[in-house]
Description:
The protein is an alpha+beta fold. It has one domain: Aminopeptidase, CATH 3.40.630.30. The protein has 4 helices and 7 strands, in the order βααβββαβαββ. It has helices at 16-27, 36-44, 99-113, 129-133; strands spanning 4-8, 54-60, 63-72, 83-90, 118-123, 137-144, 147-155. The strands form 2 sheets. A 4-stranded antiparallel β-sheet has the order 1-2-3-4, sandwiched between helices. Strands 5-7-6 form a 3-stranded antiparallel β-sheet, with no helix packed on it. The two termini are 27 Å apart.
Amino acid sequence: MTNIRFLHLADRPDAIPLVADWYFEEWGYLNPAATPDRIAEKLSAALNRDCIPLVVLAVEGDAVIGAAELKYREMTVFPEREHWLGGVFVTSERRGYGVATRLIDSVVDTARTLGVRVLHLQTPQLDGGLYLKLGWQRGEQVRYNGLDVLVMAREI
Length: 156
């Protein structure tokens, strides 16, 4: 697991269909209008390296094994909260090996480089899960898109 590299989706646009399929399988049920093609279209707008939105990929050898996003204003109920971590996904075979932690760290580092001061996220893990262990602070628990989520923040 030490051979993992972190690249931007802009460096591997061929991964868009794969990441779109992951996101659809994991979270598509939250949006009845979601399709892998629509998700791929949104991901295509994140083919950036030095501005938001962007996607960071975890790559082992040539295989893409995870993804995470740096986004603008993910939750419409919090329009004042600009910068968000989202879409953190690791393939089931690579879970439990610290890939998600390293992906999150990579997004945080990128956000810092871009001048972001505070990152937010939403998680259905109401105890904060991994994010709490990584130093994210608990915020509000809200119902959003029919799901109870915990909103968290981290100063960077």
